């Protein structure tokens, strides 16, 4: 079933929409959550919670890209769960990649920084990068893949992946400075 049909089922409050979502996106959602969390049970809980949130949000919301919208909900749920688990000294894998990225993303302390505008600027930056750098960056910071996993996907050495990521983060920081984001 295509996304437009699933969206229509959601708008009509037809519970079969959840079954269709699960059939179509369960593997991807579990992958996204699993790369952030260490336990399968936690990942499954985040995915199920994301389906419930989607059910509550549509309508009135009507995302143009259901897959991306659902993955974002799953990712946010998994990050929240990771924070909870980390407070109990569990699960550190994804936190490492977030720490790496924190060095080039400005502190959101000021009221003038909009998360939506920052996301648009970062997306614009990524579109300007060559395909391999962009894919490596997205695999690490969106999907939460390890350096070894990324190296395997693109037939690269782990050190090369780390270098790609370092250089891309450095370029991103400079790009954000040019766009007016302050690090002070």
Walk me through what this model shows.
By secondary structure, this protein is mainly alpha-helical. The protein folds into two domains: 3-91, RNA polymerase sigma factor, region 2, helix turn helix motif (Rna Polymerase Sigma Factor, Chain: A, Orthogonal Bundle), CATH 1.10.1740; 96-178, Arc Repressor Mutant, subunit A. Helices cover 72% and strands 0% of the residues. It contains nine helices and no strands. The chain has helices at 3-11, 16-36, 40-57, 66-87, 93-102, 115-128, 131-141, 147-153, 158-178. Helix 2 (16-36) packs across helix 4 and helix 7 (131-141) crosses helix 9 (158-178). The longest helix is centred in the middle third of the chain and has 22 residues, at 66-87.
Low-pLDDT runs of 5+ residues are: none
First-to-last CA distance: 49 Å
Rg, rounded, reads 18 Å
**CATH fold name of the largest domain, please?**
Rna Polymerase Sigma Factor, Chain: A
Give the overall average pLDDT: 85
User: How many E-type strands?
Assistant: 0
| Helix and strand element order | HHHHHHHHH
The CATH superfamily of the largest domain bears the name RNA polymerase sigma factor, region 2, helix turn helix motif
Tally of individual domains:
2
What is the helix fraction of residues, given as a range? over 70%
CATH architecture of the largest domain: Orthogonal Bundle
Strand content: under 5%
Shape: globular
Described by strand count, sense and barrel closure, the largest sheet is:
none
């Amino acid at each position: 079933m295509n996304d437009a049909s699933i969206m229509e089922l959601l708008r009509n409050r037809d519970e079969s929409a959840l079954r269709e979502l699960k059939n179509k996106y369960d593997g991807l959602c579990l992958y996204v959550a699993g790369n952030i969390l260490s336990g399968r049970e936690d990942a499954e809980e985040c995915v199920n919670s994301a389906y419930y949130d989607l059910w509550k949000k549509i309508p009135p919301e009507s995302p143009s890209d259901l897959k991306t919208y659902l993955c974002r909900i799953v990712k946010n749920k998994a990050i929240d769960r990771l924070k909870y688990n980390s407070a109990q000294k569990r699960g550190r894998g994804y936190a490492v990649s977030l720490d790496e990225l924190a060095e080039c993303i400005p502190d959101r302390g000021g009221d003038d920084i909009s998360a939506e505008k920052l996301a648009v600027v970062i997306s614009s930056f990524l579109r300007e990068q060559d395909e391999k750098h962009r894919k490596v960056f997205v695999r690490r910071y969106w999907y939460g893949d390890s350096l070894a996993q990324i190296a395997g996907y693109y037939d690269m050495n782990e050190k090369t992946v780390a270098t790609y990521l370092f250089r891309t983060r450095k370029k991103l920081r400079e790009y954000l400075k040019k766009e007016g984001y302050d690090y002070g």
